[in-house]
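testing teh design pipeline on a random one, pls ignore if ur not involved
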């Protein structure tokens, strides 16, 4: 199983509750979040991911809102160990050379199986067009011990401890190095998020200005 975290960063304004949104250059409108590192607490992970993707450090966790478990369908898995793709199905095989290195938490297509080894493929999609297109992909072999089939997604409500601009850009600190645009937007009506962010919004749809001032 792999753990992931999502950050609902909310603030009170004269227009009502606003949420911090993340405009991914290829992935559409999202919220900050990512994969929990091995041995890392989810609360630590959500603050780390928020900093990596937005630059924010003066932030507090208000509370955990809940979690969901997703079992991946047949033919899909999630990578449990960074950089563990081999060029052929054996421990002695060289690792696949790719920039960025295959990362923990990537969701993979399973193409073939030989004994305890799976041939897998990761595709980076551009979701900004009506029909998502493949920007790049990488293939290789992983031992089945490095393949997970369940994702636990945890949701956190956070608030900033200091003022921020209404929008800004930030180059991410992870391997892909994307530049994101961060924008505060009204919580309602719901911003034009990509799936599954739209479904996740049920966790915050009842939060009001009163709740923000109480917490």
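output:
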């Amino acid at each position: 199983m792999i753990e992931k975290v999502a950050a609902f960063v909310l603030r009170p304004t004269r227009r009502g509750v606003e949420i911090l949104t993340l405009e991914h250059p290829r992935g559409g409108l999202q919220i900050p979040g990512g994969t929990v590192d091995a041995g890392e607490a989810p609360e630590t992970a959500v603050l780390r991911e928020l900093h990596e993707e937005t630059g924010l450090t003066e932030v507090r966790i208000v509370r955990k809102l809940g979690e969901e478990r997703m079992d991946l369908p047949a033919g899909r898995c999630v990578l449990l160990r960074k950089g563990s793709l081999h060029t052929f199905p054996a421990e002695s095989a060289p690792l696949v050379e790719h920039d960025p290195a295959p990362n923990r938490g990537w969701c993979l297509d399973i193409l073939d199986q030989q004994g305890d080894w799976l041939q897998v493929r990761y595709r980076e999609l551009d979701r900004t067009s009506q029909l998502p297109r493949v920007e790049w992909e990488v293939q290789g072999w992983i031992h089945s011990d490095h393949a997970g089939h369940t994702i636990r997604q945890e949701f956190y409500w956070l608030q900033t401890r200091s003022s921020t601009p209404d929008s800004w850009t930030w180059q991410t600190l992870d391997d892909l190095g994307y530049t994101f645009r961060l924008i505060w937007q009204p919580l309602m009506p719901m911003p034009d998020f990509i799936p599954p962010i739209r479904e996740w919004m049920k966790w915050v749809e009842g939060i009001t200005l009163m709740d923000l001032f109480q917490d």
